[in-house]
Automatic annotation (TrEMBL):
TM regions (residue ranges): 12-28, 48-65, 70-90
SMART domains recorded: SEL1
Domain of life of the source: Bacteria
Keyword annotations of the record: Membrane, Transmembrane, Transmembrane helix
Descriptive protein name: Sel1 repeat family protein
Length: 600
């Protein structure tokens, strides 16, 4: 048969096929749809065009089949008939979108994303399990395992209904621990059933598939790795108490132990801390040392990664302490210095202070005041009160550093502001000997609430002793007490007297304060020129509040001739020094300049 003879033979079935297919893009009739959260969940259409064209296509295809002919003609006619019949059923909704999806299923979302166990969550779960009583731990166990089983059951039901039973989680991994009592198991099952009744079944849909087949499995995987920690602690503490406390492997089966044995430095840090502190398991310095050593071997030393540096800080400081005191390892001063140095270089304040003490006191090494001062200074940079006190004394005595009273004073103030009862005890001796800076620092600790040794009456006595010796910070503190009535009744006149003393000694905060008092006539006669002078002195010392106040005085012509250029200069200086209100003041100044320009 020639190619030219094919067209007459195939014309009828091809026409029937076109008539059956065309109505998928041609609609003439009635329709409505229901959308929930942006997803089409039901659509109802009656397509008259589809019905008419489908019938015409079916008739033509049926006639072609009856007439017979070439095999290709018959095959094409059969396909056209099937398509046309489907079109008829689709147009009158005998076949719907839901019927099709039941056959072909819904699109399966991507595989669940899971990056392995979250050690922080596991650690926090362990702390919970060891810091609460049996009732609370058991309640948490029931709640969390109930939620886990309910999530899996929901996932499984949806997979059966909408994805041919394809599961994203291995069902065998969802078993409850064998040691759980029957009563606990029953309560877990009841909790899971209650949640499933509350949630109800999820209808098949694209968004529901994303949730049930991806997001829910992700939550299951994360929860499945955390719950064994809770279960393990519950078993050791309440199901089989006393059997594991002295065991060589108290974390047997625990996911953190598994991670640590596989070389995860974070997990090794947790285990080292557990054994070192003895808060969760029986204290065992030998075990702590082994895990800390393993951590160091698995953590790069020449790194700027903050997580790695944090691990090195903790492990190095602990190992240094153990070698210095001979706990879990043989006493070895050189090893102590080695580990302290590693930790201090990684940023450990504790290790830097300990190194300072080792070199100052010659603990197993040759005494070296210069190195002691260097390490104390590193710790004091992070406001460590003990390092600040030690370094202050060295500056006072000129040991390891050049004698410097001003620097000693600054360090004692740091010690006072950040100190505790231990620092208060160290400050007492120099304070009793008449050291004004130590008296002010001691008063600062006693006046505050955080050190646990609050005694405001004694604090004020120390402030007065220091102030009477000309200690500017103490003078300003007494002035503040009178200004705000913190030590009794407000007394602006006495406040101004003490604040002025401190300002005359060059304390910028006092200069700012007395400037404001002169501006408003608070405790002193109102004197805007004096206000301007004192704010100028504070600003000249790079006091950010002084710079802001000086800009405002220039902008408003208070105590000085108005000068918007100078105002902007000082407000920008305040911004550069970090004052948070400077931006707002600069915007207001710009508006003021614009108004002046418009007025001209």
């Amino acid at each position: 048969m020639k190619p030219a003879d094919y067209w007459p033979a195939l014309r009828a079935p091809l026409l029937a096929l076109v008539l059956g297919v065309a109505p998928f893009w041609i609609f003439f009739g009635t329709g409505n749809s229901l959308t929930v959260d942006g997803e089409l969940v039901r659509q109802s259409n009656f397509n008259i065009a589809g019905l008419v064209l489908g019938i015409a296509g079916a008739v033509i295809a049926f006639r072609a089949l009856r007439e017979g002919g070439l095999l290709v003609r018959l095959l094409l006619a059969g396909i056209a008939l099937a398509v046309s019949v489907f079109q008829i059923a689709w147009s009158v909704e005998l076949v719907t979108r839901d019927h099709v999806r039941q056959v072909v299923g819904y699109p399966m979302p991507e595989e669940p994303e899971y990056n392995g166990p979250d050690l922080v969550l596991q650690h926090n779960m362990r702390l919970f399990a060891h810091q609460n009583d049996e009732a609370k731990v058991r309640e948490r166990l029931i709640e969390d395992y109930g939620l886990l089983l309910a999530r899996f059951a929901s996932h499984k039901d949806y997979a059966d209904a909408c994805h041919g039973g394809t599961l994203r989680i291995d069902e065998d991994t969802m078993q409850l621990p064998d040691f759980l009592e029957a009563e606990v198991r029953s309560e877990i099952d009841a909790r899971a059933q209650k949640l499933l009744e509350k949630w109800g079944p999820m209808p098949c849909g694209t968004k529901n598939s994303l949730s049930a087949m991806k997001k829910v499995p992700e939550a299951i995987l994360k929860q499945r790795d955390v719950l064994p920690v809770l279960a393990s602690a519950y078993r050791r503490r309440f199901v089989e108490p006393g059997t594991s406390e002295n065991a060589s492997r108290p974390f047997e089966g625990d996911p953190i132990l598994k991670e640590a044995e596989e070389g995860n430095p974070t997990a090794q840090a947790y285990l080292g801390d557990y054994f070192y502190r003895g808060e969760i398991v029986k204290q065992d310095f030998e075990q702590a040392a082994l895990w800390y050593m393993a951590l160091v071997e698995n953590t790069p030393k020449d790194t700027n990664d903050p997580d790695s540096l944090m691990l090195l800080r903790g492990a190095g400081a602990a190992l240094g302490s153990m070698y210095q005191e001979g706990r879990g390892v043989a006493r070895d001063a050189e090893q102590a210095v080695k580990w302290y140095t590693m930790a201090a270089e990684a940023g450990s304040v504790r290790a830097a202070y300990n190194l300072g003490a080792v070199y100052e006191q010659g603990l197993g090494v040759a005494s070296n005041d210069a190195l002691a001062a260097e390490w104390y200074a590193k710790a004091a940079e992070s406001w460590d009160p003990y390092a600040a006190f030690k370094l202050a004394m060295m500056y006072r005595e000129g040991r390891g550093v050049k004698r410097d009273e001003k620097r000693a004073r600054e360090l004692l103030i740091i010690a006072g502001k950040n100190g505790d009862a231990g620092i208060a005890a160290l400050l007492l001796e120099p304070a009793m000997a008449g050291d004004a800076d130590a008296q002010f620092a001691l008063g600062t600790i006693l006046y505050g609430k955080t050190a646990g040794v609050q005694d405001q009456v004694k604090a004020i006595e120390w402030f007065h002793k220091a102030a009477e010796q000309g200690q500017a910070n103490a003078q300003y503190k007494i002035g503040e007490l009178f200004a705000y009535g913190s030590a009794g009744q407000k007394d602006p006149v006495r406040a101004a007297k003490w604040i002025l003393m401190a300002a005359e000694r060059g304390l910028s905060a006092a200069q700012v304060h007395i400037g404001v008092m002169y501006q408003h006539g608070d405790g002193v006669p109102k004197d805007e020129k004096q206000a301007f002078e004192w704010q100028s002195k504070a600003a000249a010392q790079d006091d950010k509040q002084g710079a802001l106040n000086l800009g405002i005085l220039y902008a408003n012509g208070i105590g000085v001739e108005e000068d918007l250029g100078k105002a902007e200069e000082w407000l920008r200086k305040a911004h550069a020094l970090g004052h948070t209100s400077a931006d707002k003041m600069l915007r207001e100044l710009a508006e003021m300049k614009q108004k002046n320009a418009d007025a001209r």
